[in-house]
Amino acid sequence: MPRAIYPGSFDPITYGHIDIVQRARKIFDELIVAVVTNPSKQTLFSLKERRKLCEQALKEEGIPVQVITWEGLVIECAKRYRAQAIIRGLRANSDFEREFQMALTNRDLNGDIESVFFMTSGEYSFLSSSIVKEIKSFGGDVSRFVPPSVERALERKLQKT
Ligand code: ADP
Fold first, then answer.
1. What are the Cα distances from residue 45, in Å, to 32, 138, 146?
2. How far is the CA of 112 from the centre of ligand 1 (A)?
3. Which value, to the nearest 10 degrees, does the dihedral of the CA atoms of residues 41, 44, 47, 49 take?
4. pLDDT at site 159
5. Closest to 146 (Cα-Cα) out of 9, 10, 4, 6
6. What is the pLDDT of residues 51-100, one digit of tens each?
7. Which residue has the CA at smallest separation from atom 22 of ligand 1?
8. Cα 122–127–130 angle (5° rounding)?
């Protein structure tokens, strides 16, 4: 029963992330989305908010996936949830070096857990949470990039800030 975790900041979750979830679910019996803290990234939404948004978005899309939060090393999260693999998504060239470095570091920390990469679909290859936040902060339409619940949460959050 191969089980995988899909870790990320998900600040907020986009259709690009959801595309990766759907691809990974075809291969793995069980997939857990892990919303993690990243000390080098400042987030718009809190950890709890990001988790809730992931849950709502995946529910809206009809994808039954468990969503958890994790503060600490991703490799420890995989161990704790007895996952054999860590899923990551790849967009353009720019993702490769960072992901390569992270995968090798994680393998160094625990050689039993594999990193598995899924290519994004063409339509989401340029999409990132940062771009969505940027467009929305200028009042642009992000309905093609995020589910309705996420768009509403962005509206509320950006009104406050
Ligand atoms: P992190 O801070 O861990 O990079 P992100 O939420 O930015 O968190 O991304 C989580 C994972 O999802 C990463 O592997 C990233 O490359 C991938 N990802 C993000 N956006 C997309 C997208 N549009 N298509 C495919 N993969 C994506």
1. 20, 18, 15
2. 23
3. -160
4. 84
5. 10
6. 999 999 999 999 999 999 999 999 999 999 999 999 999 997 778 999 99
7. 16
8. 170
pLDDT for residue 94: 77
Rounded Cα distance between 1 and 113, Å, is 14
Q: What is the pLDDT, as a whole number, of residue 153?
A: 97
Locate 91 and state its tokens.
Answer: 């967009």
**Ligand 1 centroid from CA 96, angstroms:** 11
Closest CA to 31 of 52, 12, 64, 5: 5
Residues near ligand 1 (Cβ within 6 A): 8-10, 14, 16-17, 19-20, 38, 41, 88-89, 91, 95, 120, 124, 127-129
Q: How many CA atoms lie within 13 A of 155 on its CB side?
A: 12
**What pLDDT is attached to residue 92?**
78
pLDDT digits (tens, 9 = 90+) for 100-153: 999 999 999 999 999 999 999 999 999 999 999 999 999 999 999 999 999 999
Alpha helix ranges (H) inside 3-43: 15-27
Which amino acid, residue 18?
Answer: I
